[in-house]
Write a structure and sequence with these properties.
Mean pLDDT of chain A: 89
Strand content of chain B: 15-25%
Largest sheet of chain B: 7 strands, mixed
Radius of gyration of chain A: 23 Å
Shape of chain B: globular
Strand order of the largest sheet of chain A: 1-2
Radius of gyration of chain B: 24 Å
CATH class of chain A: Mainly Alpha
CATH architecture of chain A: Orthogonal Bundle
Oligomer: heterodimer
CATH topology of the largest domain in chain B: D-Maltodextrin-Binding Protein, domain 2
Number of domains of chain B: 2
Order of helices and strands of chain A: HHEEHHHHHHHHHHH
Helix content of chain A: over 70%
Strand content of chain A: under 5%
Amino acid sequence: MIARLDRISLLAVPALVFLAAIYALPLMMLLAKSFQGPEGTGISAYIEFFSDPYNLNVLWRTIRVALLTTLLALLIAYPTAFAMARANGIWLTVFLVALVLPMSLGVVVKAFAWSILFRANGALNEFMQWIGLTSGPIRMMFTETALVVGAANVFLPFMVLPIYAVVRQLNASLPDAAASLGATPLFRFTHVTLPLTLPGVVAGAAFVFSLSISMYVIPSLIVGERQQTMSMLIARSFLYLRDETLGSTISAILLAIAVAVVLFSSWLAGRLGARQ
Amino acid sequence: MTVFSRHGVTRRTLLKSSAAAALGTLAAPSLLRAANAEIVIGCAGSHTAWMEQIVAPHMKSAIGADILFEGTKSSVNLEKMSSNKDRPYLSVVQMDDPVMIQAVEAGLLTPITPDAVPNMTELRPDAVHLDGMWCNYVQPWAGIAYNTDMKSGVASWGELWEPANKGQVIIPSLQNTEGVWTLFAAAMLATGKPFSEAQYEVDAAFAKLEELNPNLLTVYSTMSQAFNLMEQGEVSMLAGNFSSYTLPRKAEGVPVDLAAPKEGIFAMPSGICLVKDGPNPELAQAYVNEMLGAEMQTQIADFATSVPANTTVKAGAIVPDGVQIHAPDWAFVAENRAAWIDRFDKLMAV
């Protein structure tokens, strides 16, 4: 049995070799580079990065945008996943196509489309004036709100699909059982439905947060150079400042945040699963 | 004995065949590349139209080369050359002068010589740099692009700073070569000195640039998006834009024009160079020779509304009368650019 398992596990070798060569090795090199300063090996690049208020501002903006994007995507995705789980036949197909088809569009196209919608004479401004919400055009382009909305749109499928997968497996009789015991709709949601769907929420949030924190094209097109994010700082360090140590340091910090989020979400998903 | 062997195919034979097929597939692109005499050219994203329509067909018929080109920023081209220094894949690069200086310092270029590229003898003397390390081929002129539905013209660089233009201006990042024009204009306005002297007054330039913040909608690093915003009337002015981009759009009927402010305009530093130890060196030299020759110069200068560097060519951009054209000290720019980018980004951040 053990020998058979070992032979089967060999099937993972090509993937592991590929990941080691294409992903792990360059990451190790990147990490090593971040500890090589002009005065030798050390953490001087990290000290320099964290002692610059501009960098701290960019770091906080990156985390804030990723958190808000995740939150907005969750608010849209959670009810959508329930609607999809209830849908059958053609409606389910419509939902899935509407969700998956935009993923085939390049992120540049989607970001550019949002930049058109957000203009002073764009559709959103004209609609708000038409319904009387605003008396004149308001500035939406090159704002953090626009970035969060655009990013949430692009990453929405990564939130919807994990939640949908969990909701589909939900035993529909459990909320009914709670209702038969006198639980109110709010109590049923907070004590039955929500806890059971949390593993999907955690997985979706981890996906969207990781994607949002490392996005490059979307902020470049929607908010531009005056509101830089960590990814934009990385590109700037390598391409324009030609400072590989700084670029590697910022990359390592971004990677550490992403890894922390993935590990925390795995731990949280494990705990939530165990409680169920 | 496997199922395969019963049909005359052993497992070993199958593995060998698969390995051979895989190697053959992987090797195919380089074999095809060698057979087709293909060269890869690094150029600017804004070159795409004339590289596709003029250069590629001409090179196929004139020197028998298939041209693959990668359009991006000069700094990205420099990074590609630097990262692939031991095994270059680019043969020729077309990029801006300040980045050429960095490429020379990094030992990434090989000189262009009259023996291999005879057409370089027909260039203006100021178009050949550092004994042929690179040459300028065509030079667009740079001023302030504006939306003609919103403005009738831009008389002075100072209009960018006027309170009436709040939120109506986009400027390039210093990551883009054309970003330095706004910096030098700020220096000129702050000090009252001519461009030739003001370009060294960096502190005064940055102080003046900070005053531009209320008028800025954004700072761009992707020019096409910024230009589109101006075309659509989101802003009225785009500082530092150049004739090879604005004037063809104007000719297509788009409501834009390029202003030549009274204080002066700038010559965009479009250079061409040979990559050191780049593939297919003879073909690369032939490519550069064609690019500097009268036929290509005429076509590109006309198409991109630029000033040709070949003295035998009478075509291309008409430089506005009575306005001085400035060529900055690119060595000074190259030496300080990284520090300027860092300072600029922090100063203009919101």
